[in-house]
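Need tokens for this chain, all 258 residues.
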Amino acid sequence: MLTYKDPMYTVYGSGRVITDSTKYANDVLTITKQGTRTREGDQWVYVTDEANPSVSGWILKSGLTKTSDVPASQGITIKYYDKKTNEVVKTVVIKADKDKTVDLTSEANLASDVNANKPAGYADATASDVASNGKAAKAGDSVNVYLTAAIQYNVTLYANNPAGEVAVITNLYSYLSQTQKDALVKALQDNKAPEGSDLTTDMINKVISEAGLDSFTFTGKDGNTYTATYNKSVQFVSSNTVTTTAKPNALYTITMSK
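Here are the structure tokens for all 258 residues:
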């Protein structure tokens, strides 16, 4: 895919046809001709705009930016719909051979093409979530995929001792980076943690380990760096009471980092 930023000309060396190409910045362009002006030595190319043919024309080659995006005519367009709202939440184009069909419902293609490109915040699609024409899709086709919003988890990571502004029974989840939060949610999903239910101690231990959160550093509001080390999963009833009947929570020990 090529995008352009400079004015375009319909005839080589003629006046400008488009002086502001901002709204066409993400259009797919195909180069069909090229030439070099003898005196100036600059290279010009004739590009065809697939989405807006009327703006096709000559442009300085230096005004083009190459990307890895696949033109819709040369790939399969996947439109992701939210099952609940029936609105498109993302559209991608994947590479496809014009002479072959692709079964997007197969286990391999579901993983590499459909779910690898799905928008964040949605559960993986299954074969039944892919429109029927996805069983034999080819270049130029558009296939709808219907997604369900992923289970949202309320995660609480507790500290068992004060350090700086970190008080006893403070939720450390807010101190995680977005990458760490995503890893934690993924671990919960991978282990099929039940929605709306408290997790067992064993489940918490496993999820913390798989998310790589046995130990992590964070910056406190006081500007100092602290290390949170996973201690164990305990049963909390209130801030200073432990019981075997209350819901389990992840417990961390906080120390000042050097």
